[in-house]
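Data availability excerpt. The first of two example chains:
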Amino acid sequence: MTDSSKSLIRAGFLSNDGKNTFGGKSLKEVDKILKGMSDEDAEKYADHHVMELWQNQMIKTAYPTPVRSYHIIYETFSRPLESVYMWCINQFEDMGFPIVDKITDVFSASEQSSFFGISQQRLGLQQDKVAQYLGAIGKLVKDLFQIVREVRIIDERLQYYDATSSDNRTVREPAEIALKGLFVDLVEGGAKSPASVYGLSRELQFVTLPDLFFSIHPKTKEEIKPMVDKLEFNRKVKEVLERKLFQYLMWRDSTYGELKTRRTHTIKYLRQHYDAIQLYMTWIKPYLKQIARLSIDQKKTNSADLIAAFEGSVIEVELLARRIPEGNKEVYTCIVLNLTYRTSPEIHPAEEYQRRVIHRGKIDIQWRSYGWTEKQISAFKEMRNEESFAMLSTISESIQAAMDELGDDLRKYLIEAGEKFPGVDTEEEKKKPAKPDLPGIFDPFLAPFKGASEIFGSLFTESAGKKAAKAEADLSGEIKTAQGGARVLGWNHYKLFKKAHKMITW
């Protein structure tokens, strides 16, 4: 089980050699060591459960060493194997386990079987829906770039307008000249238009008009006439200059208001796109999980138990039952139950043109008992489900990477639109004391998929070795109680299963 060794190490399930090598190291340091280590070398550092599969045939499993373990192979062609699963669930409830988590639920079927055809039809429907949502998300992200670019251009233009009201002449005059240039080029049509400032200079010989237009800068319309009257030019030149300056000021004041309104609406539109992306991500997550569950497990497809031409399937279900023993506060009694089915599915018609699959055949059941803390339980669950998060994480990280390209402007504009990002949004919040490790703008996308790194990271801190040793010593009494309960309850579940299914017991 070399493939699972590194996962066990990252989850904190270490052998004695592993504790000496990885104890006290952060997750980043652990990953760095594991990166340069072969799977075979990593085996000795992981706490593998070694079990006897057949007589004198010892194998290392992908599980940490339990307090006790039991193994049964049950075969029947007279009753559906679903009943075995339901019996195990009900028995956990009867034994006082309030929490039963499903850790693994995967299957594979031979390509020519009817069960394969039914599952692939349902899988195709889910995949089509995901493709639609991903297409919509891609379009929204693409539009987001254009919207942010548009707001940036508006902000750049508004800087010209804001500078024209400055009392500093060295700031105001360049801004006025820049805006007048835009007015001549965009509104009047530039030199090609006979009615523009440059056109009048060329066509009607008002050669001084461009110089006068770009050198006189009245702030308001009321200042135009007094400033023009002071000039020592003929009446016609001053008349045309006065007209052009009035047109310019009217354009400047009206477009300033238009740009501010446009900016407000564009930012609101930007937030709508952002919220829509989040909404689509919320919708797509269940479909992705369903696709992962409906997809054929390729590892099991290569098993000798499956022949393409036969009606066959392999199903793996794993449960984690836990309860807190009386007197304990942190350490749980845990039983990990693994059920591996090798079945011959039978298709039966049901109501409303549906088809029902009944599984009969062989089931391999393994019980493993542990005394674990909440962190160890979470680390085990994330270790077992690590692969199922890969597809979701890839999509979320790709969206985050695209949005990272927009820089801080996206954050700034969303804050203006009313989006709340703790610690960075309003002036009032800036005055408050900073809080460490606050969530960022992209956390809504990645939060559901961070589990493994956060949980594993909590097990490997800089002083993890000392803290772990101290915590273990403090919890030694609870660990002993939890392991004792796991030993008894695991045995009872195993013994009652044999009695309920008419096996030899003692």
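And the second chain:
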Amino acid sequence: MARGRQEINVAVAKLSDLLGDRLTTGEAVRRHHGDDLSHHAAHLPDAVAFAASTEEVAQIVRICAEHHTPIVAFGTGTSLECHIAALHGGVCIDVSRMDEIVKVNAEDMDVVVQPGVTRKKLNDYLRDTGLFFPIDPGADASLGGMAATRASGTNAVRYGTMRENVLSLSVVLADGRIIRTASRARKSSAGYDLTRLFVGSEGTLGVITELTLRLYGIPEAISAAVCPFETLEGAVNTVIQTIQLGVPIARIELLDEVMVEAINRYSKLDLPLQPMLFLEFHGSPAGVAEQAQTVAEVADDNGGGAFEWTDNPEERSRLWQARHDAAYASAAMAPPGSKLWATDVCVPISRLADCILETRRDVESYGVFAPIVGHVGDGNFHLTLAYDPAVPGDLERLYGLNEKIVMRALKMGGTCTGEHGVGMGKREFLVAEHGVALDVMRQIKTALDPDNIMNPGKIFIE
């Protein structure tokens, strides 16, 4: 539907009456809410509404629906595929002030939270309960945003993604109705699985206003390890064989030698400049030692070097902080004047070695700075492509490289994005990945949001 400027202005005026100073049209605030961590250009909303409750979100949505005004939900703004950009203007609903941890059900090992709660805040709150929430995408993202983009991260190989760890949601639909997608029960066969419909919907079907999440017991013992390899292939084969052996590893991260050099410089480490695995083991002290020994033997068979591991919390924290700072490390090492484009794909574990090695050859043929890092235990890896915005066509030429990487993953039975999401950056690949199923997704979108006011322009090419 065409976006009428007059209608949007009327909606903004009504929202100003409703929210007072919690509705702002200042350019600096709008710019913050229209730009994410991606390489895509910013698109500013006409206004930003700071919501305080589910009912208030519903009121905002009803006013926007009445005036056909686009809505974009906002948590912390850490998305990587232009999810929060207001492509058609409209109203950004910022839920960051909805940051209450509503209830911890320790005996049931679940928690009810508002969408603005971040993963670090939740785990800090849970520390004395002996429980934790494992999904760790790196950034201290809001849990509502993590659900909306189906986030995962370094722990997904053992604990799964947001898809497996969201039990229920409260969602405000495009017409202002408030629904609860499920109960707190660990399983149900009652009706359609609406929870998983909204997990990963990227704000295109509704605004998430409350989440019930699965929790886990903090492991008795945790150890981390690093292991360098003679070749990238040896490192990847170690990952594949570790998974095939059924080792219940908690984290297994791959870094190529370019990324190792970058984090050495940025995080002041002295790791060997070789392809590297970062690993973490959870369990009993005996179980952790057994897991580490098994993986060390697999690594040795694949050209692995010294397998060094530690259970010291400070050393583990330093290691994983360096991994989480990989994007900043890449930016610091990239050629002067560069900007970065983060992209990802995911393939079945049996095709991982082929996919990464062929991708590495493509990167070399393009002559581009592009460190490789990945949550390879579940077949997901990332590249950070550097381009010079001052050089005409430098970004555009990387579209061809990104397309090669994505289409290769699809041919190998994979997906165009393992965890970054579609946003507007991966829309063009959905026909190749989903075929007729994409038409079904459009029908669901039309049924729930007939006026296309919920994050328009994302997932589907208009």
